[in-house]
Each structure stands twice: as C-alpha cells, then as structure tokens.
C-alpha cells in the first residue's frame, strides 16, 4: 500500500517538490499549517511528514524547532532540495508584458536582480504555490508568479524564465518525520543524530556540555538556541551531530552532555543525506 506524506502548503509548494523527489511512490497530502501536517501523522491520515527546517540563504524556518520536541514524532530522514525559482504567467504571456510578480516575501527577496533588470514590481503573496494558483485564476498577462516549476505544471502556467534566483546554490533542508523512531539503519554516507537539551543552571554549563563532543571527535553540524515558553531564563538548544548514538564516541559525548543538562531528548537518528556536501 502506498504511503501518504503530509506537507505544509498548497500543491506545487517546495515542500511538495521535496515529497515527490524523496518519496516518488508516496501520495502527497497538502496541509494548511505545520501543526496540521504533524497532526496528520499523529492521527494516521499520513505515515510521514516533510517539514522544512532551514534554508541556505535565509537560515532556520520559524516555529519548526518549537514544534519538533512536543510533536511526538521522530526524525527518520533528511532531504536537501535545490530551490529553483521560475517566473510564470498565463499561457501566451511574453516576458516583456509582465508588470508585477507575486509570491512569498522570501522568494521575492531572492530574485531582486532579475526583477529589477526587467522592471517588474514585487507584490507579496501568501505563499509560492498559492500565488501561482491566484495568477492562474486571475488570467492577467501583466501579473506573474514566482514559484517552483512544479507549480507551473500543476496550475497550467507558462514558464517565462527559470533559475532566476540571485544565489545559485539556494537549498532548503527538510526533515522526514514518522510516528516511531528507526535506530536500525546505517546509511552509506554516515548517520546523523538530532536532539534538544536544556543545560543545568551552573556556571559555564554549555561550555562544559559541548566539551564532550570535542574530546570524543564528534562533529557537531548545527547548534541553535531558542527560548522556552517565553522565558528569558529557560533556553533550549537544538543540535545535529554526525554519527549514531551506538557509536562509541557519540555515546561518550552524549553521556557527558547528559551530566550537564536538565533535559535531553533525542529527536531522531537517520541516514546522512549525501547532498549535504
């Protein structure tokens, strides 16, 4: 039986593209919010969720790190998706007739040079795929959308130009979430372990907690802090490290980390995506 994978956004969103490229046999399920995508897995309406966590140009995706610890789900994979931006309009439109482009503010900011070169005004829309749908329904050749090539295909729009982003290596990292963890796999490119923790209220606790990763030769690829419950005194940290908790050096580093933390929660152990390089 085919799996269903939930994502936030409308059909044609970059999260939709991530679902198709990573799980081509699965049925994508569009959801209104990240919470809805998580709830779809918890309720059994979907077996997996594809959630964006960070972009190489704009950094982390807001809210995701707050949602992961309390979601009850586990990270079982990661996916890196190249963000190729296309300018699209109703069939028959010529580039020189486009006066305005509508899209999510993030995408508009990634195509400043192209839009300026062609004298196209930026108009902020709700999201990328939704903007493509609106342009299709509007039917105005003067109004185009910035979205993925997949959105143009879904909404019957002509691609007037693509690959127009200012940064040629713009990439989004996604996490694949499931109801149960899977600690049995070993990826050819290595493994990743993601976890959140709160340090104990002692001097230099974070410095001491991180020391175990350095002395045991564990590469930490990500460390971010964020407040918990709106409190300035309770800071939670999210981290990604290379390796599996059953590896001797990772086990020793996590043991040392646990000594200096008041809370430690492993979110997932999963194969390292080769596209990470």
TrEMBL record:
Known catalytic reactions: prephenate + H(+) = 3-phenylpyruvate + CO2 + H2O
PROSITE patterns per the UniProt record, alphabetical: ACT, PREPHENATE_DEHYDR_1, PREPHENATE_DEHYDR_3
Pathway(s) per entry: Amino-acid biosynthesis; L-phenylalanine biosynthesis; phenylpyruvate from prephenate: step 1/1
Keywords: Amino-acid biosynthesis, Aromatic amino acid biosynthesis, Lyase, Phenylalanine biosynthesis
Domain ACT intervals: 194-271
UniProt-listed Enzyme Commission number(s): 4.2.1.51
Residues annotated as domain Prephenate dehydratase: 4-179
Pfam (any one): PDT
GO molecular function: prephenate dehydratase activity
UniProt cross-references to NCBIfam families, sorted A to Z: PRK11899.1
Name used for this protein in its record: prephenate dehydratase
Upper lineage: Bacteria, Pseudomonadati, Pseudomonadota, Alphaproteobacteria, Rhodobacterales
């Amino acid at each position: 039986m085919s799996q269903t994978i939930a994502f936030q956004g409308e059909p044609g969103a970059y999260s939709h593209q991530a679902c198709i490229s990573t799980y081509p046999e699965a049925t994508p399920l569009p959801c209104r919010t990240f919470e809805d995508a998580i709830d779809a897995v918890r309720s059994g309406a979907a077996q997996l969720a594809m959630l964006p966590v960070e972009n190489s140009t704009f950094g982390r995706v807001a809210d995701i790190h707050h949602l992961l610890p309390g979601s009850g789900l586990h990270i079982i994979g990661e996916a890196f998706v190249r963000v190729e931006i296309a300018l699209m309009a109703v069939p028959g439109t010529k580039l020189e007739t486009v006066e305005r482009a509508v899209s999510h503010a993030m995408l508009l900011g990634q195509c400043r040079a192209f839009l300026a070169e062609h004298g196209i005004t930026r108009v902020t829309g709700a999201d990328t795929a939704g903007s493509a749908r609106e342009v299709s329904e509007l039917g105005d050749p003067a109004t185009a959308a910035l979205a993925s090539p997949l959105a143009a295909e879904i909404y019957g729009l002509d691609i007037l130009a693509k690959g127009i982003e200012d940064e040629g290596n713009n990439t989004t990292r996604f996490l694949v979430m499931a109801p149960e963890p899977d600690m049995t796999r070993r990826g050819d490119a290595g493994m990743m372990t993601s976890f959140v923790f709160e340090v104990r209220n002692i001097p230099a606790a974070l410095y001491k907690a991180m020391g175990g990763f350095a002395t045991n030769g564990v590469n930490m690829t990500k460390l971010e802090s964020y407040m918990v419950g709106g409190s300035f005194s309770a800071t939670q940290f999210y981290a990604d490290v290379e390796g599996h908790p059953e590896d001797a050096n990772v086990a020793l580093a996590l043991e040392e980390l646990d000594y200096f933390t008041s809370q430690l929660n492993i979110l997932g152990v999963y194969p390292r995506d080769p596209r990470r390089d």
